[in-house]
Design a protein that fits this description.
The structure holds 3 protein chains of 3 kinds. By secondary structure, chain A is an all-alpha fold. Chain A contains 9 helices and no strands. Chain B is 36% helix and 14% strand. The longest helix of chain B is centred in the C-terminal third of the chain and has 25 residues, at 551-575. The chains are: A mainly alpha, B alpha+beta, C alpha+beta. Chains in contact: A-B, A-C, B-C. Chains A and C meet through helix 1, helix 2, helix 4 and helix 8 of A and helix 2, helix 6, helix 7 and helix 8 of C. The site of one protoporphyrin IX containing FE has 22 residues of chain A, from helix 2, helix 4, helix 6 and helix 8.
């Protein structure tokens, strides 16, 4: 009789991904890349405060290295696909693991952010699609889209209140996603320590708030006229 | 019935070696052809089933809980003794042997106790290797504490959860064998009958507690490791499910029952708070190391403890036993608590309680070090009573805790039915009339890991076994008897619940056959028990059906057996006209109220043989000889 | 004290269940929660109503047999406490309480509030042990264990296998339970030889039992009566990832048959 579920014939990599910890690890590692991109992107975007010239120069600079640009885009795409695939698989697993739900369920040890990662994630995905159509492809930006004129494009977009509102909501959700996500990455990858883990949790919160605030500041700056006034 | 204890000859230090050498061995290739049933998955049963599986036998193991890990051994808090002498404080196998025989008030077999002390050292090694997280010193060596009044530090412990950790060790070893296919585990299965074929124990009948199906299992040997019967008193420190059913039904099939009246009372339990109470919770005895026990000097003093000045408190144990003080053995501490409460000096709402006060220790050692030592016990007390023991003294009262009595077994741990082995608390064991703290865990594991695996092999190798299958007539007959009893319980449809009967039985036992007993009270109790038993079979109300998950029905069967056992306990208690260990007969005491043994007439094991329903059981005496430890009057003055 | 109880009643695994309302009168604040149910059951029995099935044994918070949801919280409102150790003084007169069984596909309901947790046993059988047959052990002090490690191990070993972690986890994950055993054995020197294989096997078994995955939500830690820390899950992840990425994974033997 064998009650042991481990299948020793499978290739290591498949066995790894079959386990939910494997899927989680894939999410965490792809998240590192995505998170890195978000940080870099935020830093890049902060240049709007340095004026149109600086911003556009920056955009041009990025586009001047097509290999690097497409390399990064490809990496991001792969990561997003893996991250989303794994998240959907885990969500399906969750449904399977508890087919009959509770009539009453109270949460006492968690926050909204951790329980709604799939929704904040889905919102980010929707946002990114819109965002690409808006500022990269220019399709959604019906006013006047000009390639490599990042500053102008952005200002035109954010001068429309619904667009700004959408961005702001999305950024809040991104913040929530990261609020749980950053410390969660450490836990998933097997790092936990009675002294450092509480610090990591606090740092995640701070970073999440800073990132959110940084991104949100841009549409607000445009709407209040701090940025884009001189256009 | 012939009671042959089969004690090997020769000097006591060599008896176990000699016995092992004289045993027949089973050819390794043949082991898997033998089927062994183990009923119980506590320290004794779990370790036995795992070890028999490791040896290659084909084992079937049963327990009534939903997992073998939940056997009541899990609740042991204090620790496990072993004569390791790691503390270099003069301990030795001989000293542990000596202490255990003396502690048992000279009513145990020297040979068994010596073997227990010898094996104690292997147990620790085995458990450490399994990953039991025993307490450690900063240098990484194993830590010890002194326990239950012992003069040496020989108790190994894992916080306040020693039983849990030892049991998990055995359980994990058991699950390893389950995965390997040598052991098949049957949780939520209750043994309801023993099957004897041609004079040998060859199987059991069980009820699957989920489906209610009555099933038969055949084997070449049957091992009972079903724990103690303290719940005959209704309120005890045992688990709700702890019962005597397996051993009782074996008794009714011919296994002798030894010393049923030897039951132990634990002095430090949380007092009863009301009628609804379902069990009593033990607070580790280690509390007595730093807590001081007292009651008000004046009867009926209802002031709160902080209002009672020092001069009006009676630290009665310190007063009466200056050299042992609060650390006198369990039976002495318990009886004294009852005595002061009988004088009307008990505390708490019911007047059945005494104070266990840490205020002085907290002043002397600091609150932090008390928290360090007893923090989780204090928390537990607070959870149950709602009182904070850091601020007000704890209230404690004795409660039934352990059964020294049980099925009679020989040196090979075999009962008077060939092929029926009994281990752990279920046998009459090595503890005589009183068990020392931290020795039950030791005994359960000694039996299961290191004794039974040899002795069962010896039995299997020395006998021929006819083929026996669960569809044989013997099994069918037992099955139909079990089914008949179940149906009878369900068909009474009376007016009282099972619990109400159990509670009333327990009260009778506690009043008249508890901490102290007398001939008159025992007579009275016997009469009352019979009446109540009679009413039980006319007036109990068990709802639901036989073929379903039916907890009331499970309980009803157990209570039916408790009634019969209760009667036997009273009989044994009234026949033993002496006081010894946990058995205190008021008629037999020294002028200053200590137990008075009668070695001339009662230095024997009383083994009772079932003679049929309504018949008085037959008494068989196994004489006890003391070659090494000479009987003396215990004194803790 | 008087309480209104809404209790999940389900006759057997194959029949649908529903919430049924009961009144508990004369509740004494010193009763434990289970004693309150005992009293209610006595009353139901005398009225000819099927008593409510729930598991319990030790009633002192150590065997892990008891457990159900009280108002959506596993083992009820008091932290670090099993339901058998929860006392009625924690509630107020007139409270309305909802009692439901642990819910997970891996824990099918047997009856009312009692569920089948044998999946936990199979997770242990998959590797939650040290392979050391009786009689083969060296002297207890032959291997020193630093006190600090012994303490970490003991913290994790305190798990009583009650299943509250699964019940509370939005993913119905058994990670706290599995991680506790992997930590208990994995930090001790005795547990090293099988450490990585153990993680691999136990994690695979948990998945095969249909427990969900852990997304680090932390409800489990909050309800665990033994206050097992999330750290044990990180240790499990660590051991699992290590064996999956390094050559140790290749050496996993074919066992179990
Ligand atoms: C609160 C408490 C604290 C204690 N503390 C200590 C201590 O510190 N040190 C110490 O040495 N001792 C202590 N003891 C005593 C010790 O724990 C027990 O004597 C010992 O654990 C008994 O082990 P066992 O294996 O014989 O039985 P148990 O552990 O009780 O196991 C009995 C097994 O039999 C099964 N069973 C019973 N009846 C049936 C049936 N009819 N059919 C099928 N299966 C059945 C049960 O399911 C269970 O698996 C304590 C006891 C209690 C109650
Ligand atoms: C910029 C984009 C994104 C970033 C930076 C990001 C970042 C992260 C991080 C750091 C984690 C924690 C990983 C871990 O615990 O190991 C995470 C988890 C998660 N992400 Fe994302 N994510 C992004 C997009 C998305 C998208 C588009 C989705 C889904 C539609 C998504 C769904 C999830 C889910 C469900 C989790 C929880 C999984 C878990 O914690 O186990 N994420 N994400
Ligand atoms: C207020 C917030 C943001 C602003 C103002 C902003 C601005 C921009 C601009 C101007 C571009 C176009 C660059 C170019 O093509 O020259 C861009 C591209 C992009 N942005 Fe953002 N962005 C914001 C938030 C985000 C967030 C939160 C994400 C991810 C989660 C994101 C993901 C991307 C991606 C993937 C691209 C495409 C990059 C490429 O061309 O490869 N952006 N963003
Ligand atoms: S980890 Fe905690 S909640 Fe989970 S089974 Fe163990 S004790 Fe229960
Ligand atoms: S609640 Fe569940 S998601 Fe993980 S941290 Fe606990 S198992
Ligand atoms: S009944 Fe044992 S833990 Fe609650």
């Amino acid at each position: 009789m064998s009650s042991v579920a481990l299948d020793t014939h499978l290739h290591k990599a498949i066995r790894f991904y079959q386990a939910s910890i494997g899927k989680k690890a894939v999410m965490a590692i792809t998240a590192v890349v995505l998170f890195g991109y978000v940080i870099g992107h935020l830093a890049g975007n902060m240049q709007v405060y340095l004026g149109a010239q600086q911003m556009d120069r920056y955009a041009a600079f990025l586009h001047s290295m097509p290999v690097l640009l497409w390399g990064v885009r490809a990496l991001l795409l792969v990561c997003v696909v893996l991250h989303i695939t794994a998240s959907i698989q885990l969500t399906i697993l969750k449904q399977l693991a508890r087919p009959i739900g509770y009539a009453k369920k109270d949460a006492i040890g968690s926050n909204l952010a951790s329980r709604s990662m799939i929704w904040s994630g889905a919102m980010i995905a929707a946002f990114v699609i819109y965002h690409l159509l808006d500022l990269t492809a220019g399709v959604a930006n019906t006013v006047q889209y000009q390639e490599l004129h990042a500053y102008e494009n952005l200002v035109y977009s954010f001068q429309r209140v619904p667009v700004s509102a959408f961005y702001i909501i999305a950024m809040v959700l991104l913040g929530m996603h990261l609020y749980h996500g950053i410390w969660s990455m450490f836990q998933t990858l097997g790092f936990s320590h009675p002294r450092y883990t509480p610090l990591i949790k606090r740092a995640s919160a701070v970073v999440a708030v800073l990132i959110t605030a940084g991104f949100i500041s841009i549409p607000i700056a445009v709407m209040t006229g701090v940025v884009g006034e001189n256009l | 019935m012939e009671l042959d204890s089969k004690i090997p000859s020769g000097p006591i230090e060599q008896q176990w070696d000699r016995a092992k050498f004289e045993m027949k061995l089973v050819n390794p290739a043949n082991k898997r052809k033998y089927n062994i049933i183990v009923v119980g998955s506590g320290l004794a049963g779990g370790s036995a089933a795992a070890t028999l599986g490791e040896l290659g036998y084909n084992v079937q193991c049963f327990c009534f809980q939903d997992s073998p890990r939940r056997a009541h051994s899990i609740a042991a808090q204090g620790g496990i003794n072993a004569a390791k002498n790691y503390q270099n404080d003069g301990d030795s196998i001989y000293r542990l042997f000596y202490d255990t025989v003396k502690g048992g008030d000279f009513r145990s077999r020297e040979a068994n106790v010596y073997r227990l002390a010898q094996i104690s050292v292997n147990i620790i090694d085995q458990c450490v290797a399994q990953g039991v997280p025993f307490a450690r010193e900063y240098g990484g060596t194993l830590a010890n504490r002194s326990f239950g009044g012992a003069q040496v530090s020989r108790t190994f412990y894992a916080r306040g959860q020693t039983g849990q950790q030892l049991l998990l060790g055995a359980y994990q070893a058991l699950e390893r064998q389950v995965a390997a296919g040598t052991v098949k585990m049957f949780p939520r299965s209750e043994m309801l009958s023993l099957v004897v074929v041609n004079g040998k124990a060859r199987g059991i009948v069980t009820r699957d507690l989920i489906t209610g199906k009555i099933e038969s299992y055949a084997a070449d040997a049957v091992v009972l490791a079903t724990g103690g019967y303290g719940n005959v008193f209704y309120l005890s420190t045992n688990a709700r499910g702890s019962n005597c059913t397996a051993i009782w039904r074996a008794y009714k099939h011919g296994a002798a029952f030894a010393n049923p009246c030897f039951t132990q009372i634990h002095p430090t339990c949380i007092p009863v708070s009301g009628e609804y109470q379902s069990k009593l919770t033990l607070m580790s005895e280690s509390l007595r190391n730093d807590g001081r026990i007292w009651v008000p000097l004046k009867p009926g003093d209802k002031r709160s403890p902080d209002q009672i000045p020092e001069s009006e408190r009676d630290y009665y144990l310190e007063r009466r036993y200056p050299s042992f003080g609060n650390l006198v053995p369990r039976d002495v501490a318990s009886r004294n608590a009852k005595a002061v409460c009988d004088e009307g000096r008990g505390v708490g709402e019911t007047g059945l309680g005494v104070y266990l006060d840490f205020s002085e220790a907290m002043k002397r050692l600091g609150v932090d070090s008390i928290r360090e030592r007893y923090g989780n016990l204090f928390d537990m007390y607070e959870r149950i009573t709602g009182e904070d023991p850091y601020k007000v003294p704890m209230r404690i009262y004795p409660a039934i805790h352990y059964a020294m009595g049980g099925l009679w077994v020989d040196y090979q741990l075999m009962s008077s039915i060939p092929g029926l082995f009994v281990i752990g608390e279920a046998n009459f064991s090595d503890h005589g009339a009183n068990r020392l703290g931290a020795s039950a865990l030791m005994q359960g594991l000694a039996d299961g890991y290191f004794i039974l695996p040899y002795t069962v092999g010896n039995y299997l190798a020395s006998n021929k076994f006819d083929k026996v299958e669960p569809d044989y007539a013997e099994f069918k007959r037992e099955e139909s008897e079990v089914a008949a009893m179940t149906n009878r319980l369900l068909s009474i449809k009376g007016k009282r619940t099972v619990t109400s009967f159990h509670r009333e039985l327990g009260k009778l036992m506690w009043e008249h056959c508890g901490m102290s007993r007398n001939a008159q009270g025992l007579d009275f109790a016997t009469g009352k028990i019979r009446e109540l038993h009679d009413e039980y079979w006319r007036n109990v109300d068990v709802l639901g059906g036989a073929e379903e998950f039916n907890q009331a029905l499970e309980h009803a069967g157990r209570v039916a057996d408790f009634f019969e056992l209760a009667e036997l306990i009273c009989l044994d208690a009234s026949h033993r006209a002496e006081s010894c260990g946990g058995h205190f007969r008021e008629e037999y005491q020294t002028p200053d109220g200590e137990a008075l043994r009668d070695d001339e007439h009662y230095s024997y094991v009383a083994a009772w043989e079932f003679q049929g329903i309504g018949q008085a059981p037959a008494l068989h005496k196994e004489p006890l000889e003391f070659e090494y430890v000479h009987p003396s009057q215990r004194s803790y003055k | 004290m008087r309480l209104t109880l809404h209790i999940w009643r389900q006759k057997s695994a194959n029949e649908p269940g529903r919430m049924v309302q009961y009144e508990a009168r004369n509740v004494n604040p010193d009763m434990s929660f289970l004693e309150m149910l005992d009293v209610l059951n006595e009353e139901l029995t005398l009225n000819g109503d099927d008593p409510i099935a729930f598991d319990s044994d030790c009633r002192e918070g150590i065997c892990g047999m008891c457990g159900f949801m009280i108002n959506g919280v596993a083992h009820g409102p008091r932290r670090g406490t099993t339901v058998c150790q929860l006392h009625m003084r924690k509630f107020r007169d007139g409270d309305v309480l909802h009692l439901e069984p642990w819910r997970a596909r891996a824990f099918p309901v047997i009856k009312d509030l009692a569920v089948d947790r044998s999946a936990f046993d199979r997770i242990i059988a998959a590797g939650g042990f040290v392979s050391v047959p009786a009689g083969s052990a060296p002297d207890g002090n032959a291997i020193l264990v630093p006190k600090q490690k012994a303490d970490i191990s003991m913290d994790a070993a305190a798990c009583i296998g009650c299943g509250a972690c699964v019940a509370a986890c939005p993913n119905a994950s058994a990670s706290l339970f599995t991680g506790a055993k992997i930590t208990h054995l994995g930090v001790l020197p005795q547990g090293q030889p099988e450490r990585y294989e153990r993680a691999l096997r136990m994690v695979a078994q948990a998945a095969a039992e249909t427990f969900g995955s852990c997304t680090n939500i932390g409800e489990c830690e909050a309800v665990c009566p033994k206050e097992i820390k999330l750290e044990v899950i990180a240790r499990m992840n660590h051991d699992f990832l290590k064996v999956s990425w390094t050559s140790r994974g290749a050496s996993v033997s074919r066992g179990g048959d």
